[in-house]
Amino acid sequence: MSNALPPSDPTPVSSRCHALLPCAGTGSRAGTPLPKQYQPLAGRPLVHHTLAALRGVARLDRILVVLAPEDAHWPGDVDGVEAVRQGGATRAESVFNGLLALRERGVPDSDWVLVHDAARCLVTPEEVSALIDACAGDPVGGLLALPLPDTLKDEAGGRVAGTIERRHKWLAQTPQMFRLGELLGALQATRATGFEGITDEASAIERTGQRPRLVEGRASNIKVTYPHDFALAEAILRSRA
């Protein structure tokens, strides 16, 4: 049986936008009893803060969450959010499956998809809107990112092996915004190798020879990863409230 994708549909270029949230990870580095996306944060599961920010963006036509098939923590009906239990072994596989699910729901390949990390719960509707503004007319698409503010060191054996020039270096964030058909095709091209080397959506697009646009975000848009990140995220959420 062929793994080839069906042909892209010929729908004219559209300005509609959809959010896709891979939410199938276990968050092993977080050291929490629950998968980190469900860990309580400021009185709510972490992912609820993420979804609240996305739901605050009026230009998003839909929000699709990709869950692990065995997920027992998803609360069920969440207003304005669709969920599919098609999460994969890797983030890239979950995104790939989510893109297929969007296509199956009638989303044309010319629509924009904003892929966002479930654990980036501090993103704001303003940041997401800024990304849409910057990329809606772009031939490739782009991502939120932050110019590297600190000195960057190379390492060998736990010791500094050199200092890396930080000019023109950016920290990739999410959302990352690309046309559904182009992103699906870029991921399909790496599927046979288990999406090897694909650490985000931009890296898949880069493999096709295209250069995504960098849209400057905010330092607060962190990905909650380690135990101490929860305290920082909670402090920021409470300060906003």
From TrEMBL:
UniProt similarity note: Belongs to the IspD/TarI cytidylyltransferase family. IspD subfamily.
InterPro entries to which the protein is assigned, alphabetical: IspD, IspD/TarI, IspD/TarI_cytidylyltransf_bact, ISPD_synthase_CS, Nucleotide-diphossugar_trans
Assigned keywords, A-Z: Isoprene biosynthesis, Nucleotidyltransferase, Transferase
Protein name in the entry: 2-C-methyl-D-erythritol 4-phosphate cytidylyltransferase
SUPFAM superfamilies linked to this entry: Nucleotide-diphospho-sugar transferases
Listed EC numbers: 2.7.7.60
Pathway(s) where this gene product acts: Isoprenoid biosynthesis; isopentenyl diphosphate biosynthesis via DXP pathway; isopentenyl diphosphate from 1-deoxy-D-xylulose 5-phosphate: step 2/6
Record-annotated site: Transition state stabilizer: R29, K36
Any one biological process term the GO annotation gives: isopentenyl diphosphate biosynthetic process, methylerythritol 4-phosphate pathway
Record-linked CDD domains: CDP-ME_synthetase
One Pfam family in the UniProt entry: IspD
Species classification: Bacteria, Pseudomonadati, Pseudomonadota, Betaproteobacteria, Burkholderiales
Role, per record: Catalyzes the formation of 4-diphosphocytidyl-2-C-methyl-D-erythritol from CTP and 2-C-methyl-D-erythritol 4-phosphate (MEP).
HAMAP family: IspD
GO terms, molecular function: 2-C-methyl-D-erythritol 4-phosphate cytidylyltransferase activity
Residues the UniProt record annotates as site (Positions MEP for the nucleophilic attack): R166, K223
Taxonomic source organism: Hydrogenophaga intermedia
Entry keyword Transferase: yes
Reaction catalysed by this enzyme: 2-C-methyl-D-erythritol 4-phosphate + CTP + H(+) = 4-CDP-2-C-methyl-D-erythritol + diphosphate
